[in-house]
From TrEMBL:
Biological classification of the source: Bacteria, Pseudomonadati, Thermodesulfobacteriota, Desulfobacteria, Desulfobacterales
Organism: Desulfonema limicola
Gene3D superfamilies: P-loop containing nucleotide triphosphate hydrolases, Probable gtpase engc, domain 3
Every EngC GTPase domain range: 110-259
Protein name: Small ribosomal subunit biogenesis GTPase RsgA
Top EC class of this enzyme: hydrolase
Amino acid sequence: MNIKKLGFDKWFLDRIDASKSDNYEISRVTAVNKDSFQIMKDAKQVFAEVTGKILFNADSPKDFPTVGDWVYARFYDNDTFAVIHEVIPRKSLLKRKTAGRKNEYQLIAANIDTAFIIQSFGSDYNLRRLERYLVIVNEGNISPVVLLSKSDLAPEHERNRKLDDIKILMPNIEIIEFSNISLYGINKIKDILIPGKTYCLLGSSGSGKTTLLNNLSNDYVFETNEVREKDGKGRHTTTRRQLIHLENDAVIIDTPGMRELGNIDVSTGINETFKEIVRLSEQCLYNNCTHTNENGCAILQALQDKVISQERYQNFVKMNKETAYNEMSYFEKRKKDKNFGKLCKSIIKNKQKRK
């Protein structure tokens, strides 16, 4: 398969090391397992591992390949096994804090042009969670599109109210209603899919991502579960991130539903998502205003005047505190790990000298 059909465009071509492209093949990561990868070779999925050099030199998860990455690789045994030697520079990166207490990055996908953030009109609808998704998408330098699923399960007045809620907060974002049952809105989504561009599906478990992927691919090959009649919720079926090449040569990455959307190193994403609050902060009396209890705080005044909602303000403050704490913990851990790494390398060198 021509790598251009998998999204290899001029942006990547301009960043290719000519000496490496002569010695290695360029391939795209299509799936990530616990300790291995799958990469594409002539329309075939090939099992792959990274070199020992990558394992030894990696300082963080960002140094490892993720789904959507372009890599330099060598293929062996009649193209049934490959070794990844290096990750080609990324155009964009979608990441979050790992679930639980551990302060570390988890890479979701790389080199995405547009992210489809999916929420249903049912009980899955949550503006605060939508803001969290927008933060990581904006941080990753990715264009967001909001998809509202299960339009057939909500009355028109309820759909209009929820659409208005989103438009008030995000007036410039594209929103598409759709139904996987009646197929309403599916063609609008297909119209967005441009050959050679990469898209990803983000959303909670049961929001309809996998069924949408089946509808977009015109091929019901991805496992789905029934929707519960009681609350309109589907059950989570995607168990890993995977890259799929569609018939029109667009590329789409399916992701499992994420229970947690913790923030780490997302200050740019927060500022982009909460633009109107950030603009207000520039009018605060004090440069170091925390926007919580100071006199002369323009944000608190706007809150009192009901220019911004209490819920949006609280989410803005909460996410700023969260990312500041997580970043501090992360860099403290990195410092300890770096010192430990230096100690290990020093011990190895001393052992080698004795030999």
